[in-house]
Amino acid sequence: xxxxxxxxxxVPADGVGKEVVAAGRAVLDALAEGSRxxxxxxxxxxxxxPWGCGYYERTGEMIDAGGLERLxxxxxxxxxxxxWPTVPDHISLWGLRLKICQTFDQWANVRPMQFLPGxxxxxxxxxxxxxxxxxxxxxxxxxxxxxxxRNFSGRGQGSEVAVQSALFTEVGCERIMRFAFDLARTRDxxxxxxxxxxxxxxxxxxxxxxxxxxxxxxxxDVETESVLVDAMxxxxxxxxxxxxxxxxxxxxxxxxxxxxxxxSGSLGLAASANLNPERRFPxxxxxxxxxxxxxxxxxxxxxxxxxxxxxxxxxxxxxxEQAARLRKAIETTTAAGILTRDVGGxxxxxxxxxxxxxxxxx
Length: 362
Ligand code: NAI
Ligand code: MG
Description:
Elements: E1 4-13, H1 16-35, E2 42-48, H2 53-59, H3 67-71, E3 76-81, H4 89-103, E4 108-112, E5 134-138, E6 142-150, E7 162-167, H5 170-184, E8 191-196, H6 204-216, E9 223-228, H7 229-238, E10 245-248, H8 250-263, E11 271-275, E12 283-287, H9 304-316, H10 320-335, H11 349-361
Parallel strand pairs: 1-2, 1-3, 3-12, 5-10, 8-9, 8-10
Antiparallel strand pairs: 4-5, 4-11, 6-7, 11-12
Residues 16, 20, 81-83, 89, 93, 97, 267-268, 286, 289-295, 301-302, 305, 340, 342 line the site of 1,4-dihydronicotinamide adenine dinucleotide.
């Protein structure tokens, strides 16, 4: 029988994004290859796009005019990382990644913290405590709504004024919270921690708190807590075993998830999904890390964040057993000590990729 085929748009973009997308594609293709002949056989049909900072330098645009329209037809987008020192970061990020997230209403950003065997966490607690939590980031509004202006006051250089506003809507808060509660119901620990800074930000974040209280009433079986973001960053370090699902605004969750992935050993391990849960548009899967210009092009990039993002993509396609196979291969590889430099090893991107592929067939 013909395997179920998923059409994937690969957008490696910049720096290590190119290296980890190549690695992720190789591992995902090996997984698909291994499914041949089985009842749930599947395949990937990839198309790769050249957008990013190099493209910007050539054309003056981060993505071509019809680009977003073309992406619409794919089952998913597999993204690397965008950003390069030759282009201001706010131009590259808004011009490509945030544009895709916002156009395709990918309002739920899922970022599981990956504590892996063989990878040392800077947390001593991680040695003998099972740590497993996920950050749910509101991905459509909040502090990244892009609302504001600069130098509109007419004051000259040296006295410039800028305003950057955060946007919170009841609909936006409610949908991300329901998403977090629904996810909590699928986990061993049914708990949602809501994060704000509502003591200082008395409009948007108080709305967030109010919606959280209202929504939580619909989930009496799920434990809840509301924690301020400063206290939550301390809790990530001191009491992470008390966390299961952490839901936070765009900026707060962005920062907390970098902290969480650093605590698991490296930013290079962290996977993420930018979901359009209604499936009106393709969702996008990408490692949490950026383009890492400091190590780009040297074969040093850790591919595990990108490969783990592939597992999230398989979950999204309704292939949880395949996702589990991929995660198992990641654990087998790290447990065997085949690690890139960021997690204390000396293996290259290519060696880790090969080990992941070997682990799939063992
Ligand atoms: P970064 O995530 O690129 O790098 C931070 C540190 O983590 C660096 O020391 C880097 O070497 C290390 N690192 C990152 N990924 C790694 C991997 N796969 N393996 C091993 N080590 C890894 O963040 P930074 O330096 O703040 O930003 C660099 C560029 O990336 C900027 O242009 C920024 O705007 C962009 N960026 C893009 C993101 C995206 O496309 N989603 C997310 C974050 C940053
Ligand atoms: Mg970030």
